[in-house]
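One thing: can you check what follows?
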Amino acid sequence: MKGLYFHIPFCRSKCPYCDFYSRLPDDAMLDAYTDALCDEMSTGTRTAAFTENADLSFDTVYFGGGTPSVLGGERLLRILNEAKKAYRIAENAEITVECNPSGVDEEFFRQLAHGGVNRISLGLQSAVDAERRQLGRFADKKQVEKALKNTQKSGITNLSLDVMIGIPDQTIASLDETLQFCLSMGVPHISAYMLALEENTVFYRRRDRLNLPDEDAVCELYLHMAETLTKNGILQYEISNFAKPGFPSRHNLKYWNCEEYLGLGPSAHSFLGGKRFFFPRDTDGFIKGDCAVFDAFGGDAEEYLMLRLRLTDGVRFADYKERFDSPLPDGFLKKAHAFAGQGLMTLTDEHAALTRNGFLVSNYIVSELL
């Protein structure tokens, strides 16, 4: 089955490091956007060129952003209920909502849980209040803790926290404070991202004034984080993702397994029937009915290898042969053997995968392999 993604392009404020598409909302805009998403699901007009005759069956639903919690529980559940009417949503579907710890209360999470949401992803970034302020986060650690406890009280225990490494003034000690907070809250999933200075962000414009860790320090932070989480039973399964057994993100695994998904909303991307398509970064245009745009054909061997190598179990030879009706090229295996000799890959009779040190230079390794 496929994954269903809703992009919610609204934030109450723009974080200084963020380049994701979002805008400031008002109630009229939130209502109009909710109407537009529901209209697309009931009519399919915006994606008709790509979804005709497609089997729109989904076992994961993901509300990303932006800040989906800005919509409020009533609008989020209206969208989810329309999805259940328009598509085939599996009874055991993983249904995730990304939330900012600010502006959400116990009633919000109870409402989501009652409506079928069973996974929450909270934007922690750091548990060190001074670091959080630099990142433009309004909630302090106590508010984040309260949001987590409210989520757990609602009955939603499949929780993920976003953590950032390589942020201004971060040290091993401050990262440990963040990791210990995550562990103390019993959260089963951590998404940990290295800060990237994206153009058109406040951080990019201020880059010469930021006290950022150098490249070696960032590598040390990454390895320390991975080792700490692993020792505590939160195991790495992808370059930036860690989970207790049974708690990897089923939705995100679809991307890395090169499986199909449908994305709705401005800047949302889709992969169906071997075609990749997307909606332009234009909320007003989406509301007015602008259609999705063809991007490229997808799912070839090179793309599959690139995505699978993000996972700790890498490329399984039998799966590759079944999918493409041919074994892995000798050139790939020869280069993989060389990288294995440098401690950057593991190579067995069954699979090839990057090691943790290999993840640190994954772009280079993958480009060489492909």
User: Anything to note?
Assistant: The chain has a mean pLDDT of 95.
